[in-house]
Write a structure and sequence with these properties.
The protein is mainly alpha-helical. It contains eleven helices and two strands; from the N terminus they run H-E-H-H-H-H-H-H-H-E-H-H-H.
Amino acid sequence: MIFADNPHDREIEKMMQKTPHFRPRGHGIFVNEKTEYNAERCGCRECVDRKKKRRVSGEKTPCVEQRIHEGQIPQPRVLMETFTAVTNPEFIIRINEYIKESEKQPMQFKNEKHRSVFENAIKGMNTNNKIKMCALYLLTADGCLWSAAKRHIGKDEIHFFRIRLGKSTPTAYTLFCCAKDLALGSKHMTISDLADGDVVHPKDFAIICNAMAIRRYGLGAIQYKGEKNA
């Protein structure tokens, strides 16, 4: 995700570009990148001891990304890991408040309708594709936005340039801009925008932060393991 040009806001760009195999796409089309995590490739002590069914002390481990991928790290800590590079003071205050809320009641989805629409949207897709899961997580969070976007979602791409919001709500517009930024590397939203409660509603802020965590770590960032009855 690329934000504004000032030094504080560029920190988030550097963070997002650290994602393995990140390739910003242009011309309004996101194309799938097919990469899968193989737990057998990790040989750090944490993984070795887990295989032996031992309890390992200490929070920090060399394979934090793999553990997040598997949904084995609490959501508040995932958020902390996601935004460690951000230095914008206002954003730090706001994300810390959200992290405290997440410790009491983690929010995977905006509501059950969001969960249901998202689950239907990703059926038959490669759920290990972080960028596409992140974008779909945002696009399915608002009914008006999804109505405008769903016909332009393919199995291997999202045609952002074909999506027309028309008379959209502020929430739909905000989520759409963030989805484009995270998928395409565009510059619609800045870190300062996200820090401003008058610009981004608290519930939208939570969804966007979750999406950014998904963009970096995959669906394990929100401890999503599929449909409830799966």
